[in-house]
Amino acid sequence: MIKKIFSYLLPIKIYETKSSLSKSIEVTWSNGELVLDSENANYSYGSLQRILRLGLKNIGYEKIVPMKHILVLGVAGGSVIKTLVDEIKYKGKITGVEIDPEIIKIANTYFKLDEVKNLEIVIDDAFEFVLKTKTKYDLIIIDIFQDTTMPNFLFETFFIHRICFLLNRKGFILFNTMILTDSQNKRNKKYVAEFFNPQFKIRTIPRLEIHNELIVIEKLN
Ligand SMILES: C[S@@+](CC[C@H](N)C(=O)[O-])C[C@H]1O[C@@H](n2cnc3c(N)ncnc32)[C@H](O)[C@@H]1O
């Protein structure tokens, strides 16, 4: 409680570990809230949670509540999962795919992710998982970062075609991207401009944070 109060003045780090993928993983009290960070990026809770909440709002909570199965690629501390379950009261199934087993231990210890009854965690590379899965989903959230880097496969047409194939009709993809350079800005513009499939509609959401852009893809029928 004391740490929480003091964290309004200065962030207080309560746990830190090395990670080969994310350089370091830190759990910190910041502005009265427990957040999970990598060396240079906010991974879970804090601004990341606000960004993804905006994306879910943009899709429409009323469309999310009746969904049956949501896939989350990139789990970390699980803040978008908490938004779905605690705030939106989504009761369907959630499958979360995370490459780093250490981060799931932290999510369970500090953020009680293992208390979410409708959540199944799969430790796997998201790319491998989407190739293997035979399930179809109503919403697929793509939130994959290795510190501030987004793996190249995320922007390859093969991956996005596969993700689109895994979507039920009237389903949604919510893709969180980071833009730190002009070339990444161009990458996003090209991605949206060149995505063409009459069965889908693609749009970006006005940014909450200058460095994050959310892309929404909707399967029309
Ligand atoms: C920004 S965090 C995810 C935050 C989470 N969606 C939330 O709402 O709190 C990014 C996560 O992607 C994971 N990651 C990176 N590469 C991955 C991959 N190829 N497959 C699965 N997860 C990956 C990282 O380990 C990290 O936990």
UniProtKB/TrEMBL annotation:
Transmembrane segments: none annotated. GO terms for molecular function: methyltransferase activity. GO terms for biological process: methylation; polyamine biosynthetic process. Coiled coil: none annotated. It comes from the Bacteria. PANTHER family: THERMOSPERMINE SYNTHASE ACAULIS5 (PTHR43317:SF1). It comes from Flavobacterium sandaracinum. Gene3D superfamilies: Vaccinia Virus protein VP39. InterPro entries: SAM-dependent_MTases_sf. This is Methyltransferase domain-containing protein. The keyword Endoplasmic reticulum does not apply. Keywords: Methyltransferase, Polyamine biosynthesis, Transferase. Pfam families: Spermine_synth.
